[in-house]
Amino acid sequence: MPVLFSLVMSILFLSLSSFLSQKWRYEKDKLTSFECGFDPMSSSRTPFSLRFFLLALLFLVFDLEMLLLFPYIFSVSSVSVSMGVVSKIWAFMFLVILVVGLYHELNEGTLDWNKE
Fold first, then answer.
1. Quick check: 65 and 98 in contact, CB under 8 A?
2. CA 35, CA 95: separation in Å to the nearest integer?
3. For the whole model, what pTM was predicted?
4. Which of 12, 24, 65, 73 is the most buried (most CB within 10 A)?
5. Which is nearest to 70 in space by CA: 94, 34, 41?
6. How far is residue 94 from each of residues 51, 56, 73, 90, measured CA to CA in Å?
7. What's the distance, CA 100 to chain centroid?
8. Are 55 and 111 a contacting pair, CB within 8 Å?
């Protein structure tokens, strides 16, 4: 019953807000970037370095890997011996997959910053 009530209230609020809101007309000036009232001198879409994007993505992957390993390190001491072996196998497999991925990225040249 509370789920149904929440669903009905959500639909009611969404329909009420769309009914009461002003409909904006999009003009050409509203869709361009603002540069002190003058026409823009260049496009606001600037290119970005794909190499930097890939390196940042790899950093996030390995940063999350550390985030996932910290709780494992602290919980190993409180696990029984039989579960400890299974959890060590899973942690080893996790690290092997990450090292294989790092090796692949190294061979692919993603980590070579000066490569043209």
1. yes
2. 50
3. 0.49
4. 65
5. 94
6. 26, 21, 13, 6
7. 22
8. yes
Contact 110, 59 (CB under 8 A): no
Q: How confident is the model over 48-104, as pLDDT tens digits?
A: 777 888 888 888 988 888 888 877 777 776 666 666 677 778 888 888 988 898 899
Give CA separation, 54 vs 7, 22, 49, 111, in Å.
41, 42, 9, 9
For tokens 């606001």, name the residue. Answer: 44
- Bridge partners (DSSP) of residue 34 are none
Q: pLDDT by residue (tens digit) across 20-48?
A: 776 666 666 666 666 566 665 666 666 77
Q: Could you tell me which of 74, 64, 48, 70 has the C-alpha nearest to residue 101?
A: 64
